[in-house]
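Hi L., both proteins are below.
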Amino acid sequence: MNPLILAFETSCDETAVAVVRGTEALSNIISSQVDLHERFGGVVPEVAARAHVESIRSLAHHALNEAKVHPDELDGVAATAGPGLVGALLVGHSFAKATAWARQLPFVGIDHMEGHLMAPRLQFEDFQPPAVVLLASGGHSQIVHVTDWGQYETLGTTIDDAAGEAFDKLARVMGLGDLKARDGDPKAVDFPRAVPDRPYHFSFSGLKTSVVTYLDKAVASGELPPIEDVAASIQEAIVDVLVDKTFKAVDDTGATTVGGGGGVLANTRLRERFAEEADKR
């Protein structure tokens, strides 16, 4: 039988505790800090760490209760070891290690990006290497070739900003809580697709500059299109690059499986494009 693991994630601004058996999450309890950081326009590391301290113990109890698991039944404890905000990581890592020590259980520190890479297995049991995986979040954008579990080759990464950061910052530039692109025209504005000469690498800082410049000129001339159209065009520029470079890696490596992990993969348009490109192959 697969081991029963109590798992902690505190790499940024959400405290999460789960009880997992194999690829089945028996519980997954999350405490969001969105309201705490909203007035600052971004995540404040010290505020995040303090919020983790305040919530992690009660969340651990909640996760165990929801899973109907007694601590004596656990086979091990795991926690995100990095990358992430140092203070935030320290809270979850320390609490998890203390829990493991107190109950004489093995402890495993999990690489944040490897966690994203493994995430498709929770939903798709057939997700197996060889695979190409797009990892896209607020702090990272990578294309990884998985030849076997534990054997990874990073084919490309961002040379400046991550995709998630571009989404978040441009939404703030336009005065939006998030990028409201669902009802817009993705062809309204032709924003640049960066570093076409580097097949697996990303760059999003130039896109941010292009959008800010476009908005300033459009407002000054009185020719600003509906904000939904601008948002949809930004989204399409980011999604195009993520999808095109990921599937170039699929074609070049001959991988039979493609997957994705990280917060940006929650984007509906990105998931649609991924499915469309996968179906073509």
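That was the first. Here is the second:
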Amino acid sequence: MIAAGLYRLLTPWQALRRMGGAASPVRVILAILVLASSGQAFADERESITYAVYPYPPIATKMGEHRGGYATEIMTEALRRANLQVNVIDLPGNRALSYVGEETGIFIAGTKTPEAFDKHPITWPFCFETVTHALIVQAKKGYTSFIDLPLTARIGAFLSYTLRDYLVEKGYTDLHLVKSNDQLADLLMMDRIDAWASFDSAARFILEEKGMDLGAVRSLPIKKFSFCAVTSNKTDPALLDRVRAAYQSMVADGSRAAIRARYERYLGPDTPPDPSTWPQRPHF
């Protein structure tokens, strides 16, 4: 038992060295995070997997040592049902896709976009939500659609915001990037930015948490995307099949719907992505 537990404790480090060569600072940091979260390895015979999160409420939340949120609940339950021991760690949002693309044995949740596919060697085992990327503006400014916003607009966004390159391609170059998405609500209401780029659901959550008047802002939709489990494209296909089947069991028994119901006032109507689109390359 002790030998088996020790093997499982060392497995994450071995996975990080699989590509050969000296360990980079990124891999050393990631190895420390994974090993620090593996304290139950001696007591659990299941295969270990890492789920990495970064705060983006209501998708992912952190209060003290507790990590929650819609995606966190969906992902950890699916991985658990796949008979995996789930180690949850924190990662910086602006580096999450890079970590996942470089190493196996790590999952995150993220938006399925062509940019992500082109830049990172990743795959999407399953998709569980349709999210709306939007620009949040003050209602008094009179903008009614994304195309109404002048190209000179000052747009604030979270450091790891998915559509940053897309906005630049559309001509919006005055981008103000911050470490925390909730800072942007204050910047918007103080007129220090003209628009706040965010998931529509995240903006609603933050405005409610801050006690701000939802009627004072307007959401200008940009694009809708699938929100999915993400992992390295080098991950064992058999493991991907197990995780995918585990999520499908959550859909079948109503567990996904029950989790989503707790966040519905932020997420809006339920329009889950078509399973036939999960493994395919996304297109705008």
